[in-house]
Amino acid sequence: MGDDIKIVVNVIDSTGAHAAATINTTTTRLNGFSAAPTVNTIATGIYEIVFASVTPAPSEGDRLICKVNGDISGTAWTEYGVPVIIKADERGTDNASTFDASTDTVTTDTASRDASKADVSLLATAASIAALNDFDPATDTVANVTTVGSVTSDVTTDAASRTASQADVSALATAASIAALDDISAADVWTYSTRTITSGGITQSEVADAVWNASLSGYNSGGSTGKALKQIKEGVISTDGSVDDTSATSTTFVSNLSESTDGFYHDKVIVFISGDLLGQARHIETYVGSTKSITVSQGFTAAPSDGDKFLILATHEHSLNEISEAVWSDTHSSYTTDGTFGYYLDAQVSSAGAGGSGLYQVTVTVQNEDGDVLQGARVNVDGTTLTLVTDSSGQCVFNLDSGVYTLHVSPPAGYQTPTGNVLTITSSDVSSTFTLEATAPSSDCDVPWVG
Fold this sequence. Notes:
By secondary structure, the chain is an alpha+beta fold. The chain is built from nine helices and 24 strands.
């Protein structure tokens, strides 16, 4: 009692795995109380709904219902009810302090106060500290210091001592030897017939190694071969790495990559350049920056071994699932070229699922008893093939001519099927609302429960 109300929601798909979802903070609420929720994402498919400063404040023993609304990839689910019971704060019964510093006083005897004083007898006084700044060189003396006058006598040494102190420079190069360093001829370096290095301790193999082992990062001069090779490499290969996982599978393994951003290599291509999977390439489905884990959308023929090397190519490709989703989610109305497959499919669905071609708009709203709109309800005009599904606003729109029509609703799960609405159209747009009653809960519990 008195705490924020926090509800953890797990969104699970049909396979039992957590699924990413969106909690609707507008329609998610505590029934009968005024409090706008905030939503914290704990992990994929796990969300914490927090109600702070609930009005009116609940009392101990109150039983509330949180109605949770949201969607998965734009498709709303049926509203779920979660029970909340208000418990009392835990209160201790031991000897809690009741001292109030603003009104209570503490009284002690003189002996106790004297005993609590610190001994400051050894501290310097103000006078002794001030005296430290009164040093007079004319009268004050300092122990262990001898006054030394100016030294006026010359210092003399004998010839033998001077000779002994001279440095030995016999091993230093002479001016002639230094000048000779400028007399190296081409014949000392090259054998003209073969252009091979013959002196200086440098071999052809060392030169080749120095060229091919040079870091590309240093070659940025415009028009240079080094920069051209660097650009080719960067345009083809994003990075290289190796497997760092003794428990790798054919679809998932941990790498030695340093990138810490989730999804950084998503939709790129990985190709092995060593081990049993040499030459095999796959599409990267996910990359987890915290664990450096790579998951491919289609498994390799075997699991890679720890230490196997790979390249990640600087390319982008969509997975089969993304491609198929894009194909089937494409708007059919954009295919108007006669003879194409899209045009054919559009012609097949243009009558069944359409809203008609009449002069007047009929706006149909489907809601529950609390006035919350319901998405996904199918509305049909009796006697026709005109059938539409309510959107996230709980509405769909038909285009009908003047006349008398009967509308029927196929409700989403958890709601009873209502009777049809009779609609009369004369010379203007009209609207119609269906209010659906929830299916009665089981008698085994007093509130709806989602577990």
